[in-house]
Amino acid sequence: MAARTTQRQTRRVDLSTFHRVPLGTWPTPLDTCPRLSAALGATVLVKRDDLGGVGLGGNKLRKLEFTLAAALAAGADTIITFGGVQTNHGRLTAAACARLGLRCELVLTRSVPRSGFAYDRSGNVALDRLFGARLHLCDTDDEARYTAGALASATSVTLPVGGSSGLGVLGYVAAAQELREQLGDQRVDRIVCAAGSGGTVAGLALGGETPVTAVSVSPGSQEKIERTAGLAAEEVGVDQPKLDHVTVDESAIGEGYGVPTDEVWAALRLFARTEGIVLDPVYTGKAAAALVAGVRPGETVVFMHTGGVPAVYGYAPELVVEAGR
Ligand SMILES: Cc1ncc(COP(=O)(O)O)c(C=O)c1O
Predict the structure, then answer these.
(1) How much is the pTM?
(2) How far is the CA of 86 from the centre of ligand 1 (A)?
(3) Cβ pair 176, 206 in contact under 8 A
């Protein structure tokens, strides 16, 4: 851990002082998207964190580079973590554990009103099994906590939901630094990014000064972003950061976590048909729906594609209908 300083933000913190294992292919591309931009009347750049690296890629890899390195350094042989049935964090933890020779226990909770063969068996669930993780399906958060407690041992490390520990957030402090280098002198009005457990937005906000629109996929984002930013600040030894440049947008939540709206499916069609980019119906689809609804004429936006594409197959029955519209 770095020494405590009076620095307000972590922007200048040297992340090389932390343990880190390579899991992704950095830098991820920053796509100029002329047809999407024309359709929205703005300049939209897509940061492709869905591409490259272990386990089909996605935002959780950046967090796992720090959290799993710390677990290895502590002598762990098993990682326990949580998520919904179609968790991307779980899939990428399973893949990264396979790469690093760690056992992976995924404690999954039925937190989305979906079931059936596609949702329960395909998409991320099938990949979790392929990567050799053990799956523990629970009906409630209490059952999940009890199950994880029973699995814990002296050589296990438990990662929080979404991988959003203080160390995990540092992955997106690094991403903000990477993005700044890619942009060079190009001016950007804001970054649009989905917010679940909050760590991705917290890292982007801590690592850069560009305004961030945090598009909530479930209620309570403001508190989650502040809490995870605080954990990261603690990790690097700086004061609780000010997050004045983060705006939380709850307009795309719809009926709740994991329930796509018509606007989400429309956003999936738009990105696919203008740029050949696949979004997911739980996170990036909601972030894109909020972008489409709130884009200002002529602005320049970086849209963070945080991954999640395998979850599309969990929604196959709806997707085949929606894709044909
Ligand atoms: C594809 C995808 N995008 C965005 C997020 C949100 O990231 P965070 O939990 O750091 O807010 C997640 C979280 O699981 C995700 O899987």
Answers:
(1) 0.96
(2) 12
(3) yes
